[in-house]
Amino acid sequence: MSTADPHADIERILITAAQIQQRVAELGAQISHDYQAHSDPLFVGVLKGCTMFLVELAVHVNIHIAIDFIAISSYGQSTESSGVVRLLKDLDTDIAGRHILIIEDIIDSGLTLAYLRSQLERRNPASLRICTLLNKPERRQADVPVDYIGFDIPNEFVVGYGLDYAERYRNLPYIGVLKPEVYTRPAH
Known about the structure:
Helix 1 packs across helix 2 (51-59). This protein starts with 9 loop residues before the first strand and ends with a helix. Helix content is 23%, strand content 28%. It has four helices and nine strands; from the N terminus they run βαβαβββαββββα. By secondary structure, the protein is α/β, with parallel strands linked by helices. The chain has helices at 17-35, 51-59, 111-121, 180-184, and strands spanning 10-15, 42-47, 66-73, 86-89, 99-107, 127-135, 148-152, 158-159, 175-178. Helix 3 links the parallel strand 5 (99-107) and strand 6.
């Protein structure tokens, strides 16, 4: 956070805005096809990182959908998951008997998502699938089935397109690797 320009803190662009737009359109088409026989599936966005991805994905889905949000945390202001999951905001919708698609920004260790998935399964949905924009397979610690993946990425700390570090960089239109000195410098 060396300057007022968030782009200056990016080491390199990993996935361009155009690549994101193309892949999100492809995912929207696939989800539309897969869910066409289901009435009004519920997209459950995991706040806050999913917002840009969920909105863009919804634009490319050509069936009726409902949207709700849940907020959980295991990071705080760290670059590593703490392993302790806290529910910050629960769903407003009863999901019993509904077809649920969890929308995530990134799956890293999978521990947070495994916790969320087990909590939602207890509410008896008709089906429960997972869609993530980014997947870090080499970091996986929990075996979580992922039905839709935007991009597999290497084990680097990324920001942009909804992903943040200390609540910054979410507004970047691409996925970029954050310069290590940004998140290793001592807090003032």
